[in-house]
Amino acid sequence: MMNEESDFERICLLCAEPRVPSGLTQRGRFFCQTCQREWILEKRKIPRVGKNVLNSEEKTEFLLENLSLFNSSLGLEDLMFRFSELIADRLKKDKIAIFITNLELGEIKLAHYYSKQKYLQRAIKRFTLDYDLSYGILVEAMANREPCFYKFSDQTHPFYSFYSKLTGTKSQLVLPILYANIAVGMITIDYDEEDPTEYIEDEEILKIIVGQFAVSLRNSLLFSKSKNQSKHFRSLHTAALTLSQLYLNNHNEMIRMILLTLSGIVDSSISCLIEFPIDSAKVKVFKVYRDLDNYELKTHTESIESKELNSILQTKEIMTIDPIKIPILETLGIVGKESMIVPVKLENGTICIFILAKQDSRFPNEEIEALNAFVSLARITMENSNLYQNLSNKERLEKEIEIAKEIQSNLLPRNTPEAEGFSFGGFMVPARGIGGDYYDFILSPNRNELFVCIGDVSGKGVAAGLVMATVRTILHSLVRVKDSPWEILNDINNYLYSSYKEAITPRFMSMILIRWNLVTDEVDVSGAGHGNFYHYHVNQKSLQSIETGGVILGISPDISKFKNESKLQFHAGDTILLFTDGVTEALNASEKQYGEPSLEKSFLSNIELEPKKILENIYLDLKEFVKEQEQHDDITMVAVRKI
């Protein structure tokens, strides 16, 4: 027997190389000197490592053979189908699932299930798990970012019993899909037995290509998200044009149009508006139901005693909530996984409460951004409708401008961002109540990046203000998914050109966009025909005028040849000043412009003050120059200092 065993070779199941182990450890595991891992070594007379295990050369060949699968231009559905088909063919497995993680919404969603048993694919469809450790091993594997093999019989959460009965699965291999060490999803392989002998080989094969799949999956997810944002932008633009022209003399139809548009923007199964006039004991409830699977649409309107809805009518701020926590929502027929409540108070005292509900998911940030922008537009329309009914033409126009001015002021930063090491100032005085100028400070959710921008829309009044409001919504969405200021400017150009190229009055916009990386202190600058800004260097006590270049947005469908990207060295104590041409081109009674020399002088004379005070003093100098002369353009300035 001993002689017979001496003819056997020990084979490492990972690297497939015959090696004498360097030492025996617990439960028959050895340290392989070839792959430098502790693993099971098997005795084989003929080197049979397993049907799937590859040596180093074969691993490389396998990856190269399948690189075409990871083409970043693949759509999400196509990518997942082809990847699961590749795994099924290579591992000879029949039941493979791909889950996608959305940490923003706190959920793990089954995005694709592959099986040759078509009834299984139809039965499983798509379901979602909360990102909650109470779910057990699946969520733990994601949180720990480590592969694992487990038996369903060891899990206590009801989900595993349901899944096992539905698919016949007894055990499962879980492999997180990691991008930059963050779990963007996971792959699972189902086994009909609890025997763990095969999963080691399956895991090794998956590890070869899952990293490249993670990159492609993230690219596809970003592309899908960008398409959704583009849809929101188009819906917002179309709705703004429609609501500004129609329904002013048909109140009920106007409300239904608003609710229908809202449900499309945020993919809501139900949208509701509770309207409570100040002198009424009853509220009017408008509802629009959308069947997202069968493309059916139903509307319903009813009157209810206001005291029954008192808890909702007291809502003062936008909120998201589980509908179960507010019993009256179920009475209204509003059910689902998450509801959003948006209160609006009109000028005449009417309280309007918008309520939207999602059946199986939560509201992502980009939808909330689009929702806020549209509700602002809807408020303008409702106010205009009231004015249309009650005021003379002149009074209605004046009131419309006043309402739009108030809403626009709410779109500008109310407070400076809490970015450690920076001090900010922002200032805007519109020429006609409603301005086309725009400035903003945007701090990323992870507080690692700060965007500062200033822009000027062509024209004045309501039309320019509407463009400004829409561009703001686009910008706030894009900074979440785009790293380069130039990429953001390019997308804004695409929106302006496609939306206004056939308009009677085209709309253009100049802009400067600056991105601070608060971790590395890198500063990137891109311009779009806005001209220059000033940089005061505290060490040299000198003022530098920086020309940004670029081309005005909305003129051409392709601005790639005007691409400009520059770096800014910004040291402690330095201050930058951005401004629109309403500052330098302000005229006095002699038709003389205030000009850049006067602006530079005022800036330097106030440089020791805080940024906010600097802007106030510059404006006082400007007003002293123009005296009682009428203001012809919006006056906007931004100052930022690194402390």
UniProtKB/TrEMBL annotation:
Domain PPM-type phosphatase: 419-642
UniProt KW Hydrolase keyword: yes
Pfam families: SpoIIE
Keywords: Hydrolase
Domain GAF: 75-227
Signal peptide: none
SUPFAM superfamilies membership: GAF domain-like, PP2C-like
GO molecular function annotations of the record: phosphatase activity
Name listed for the protein in its UniProt record: Serine phosphatase RsbU
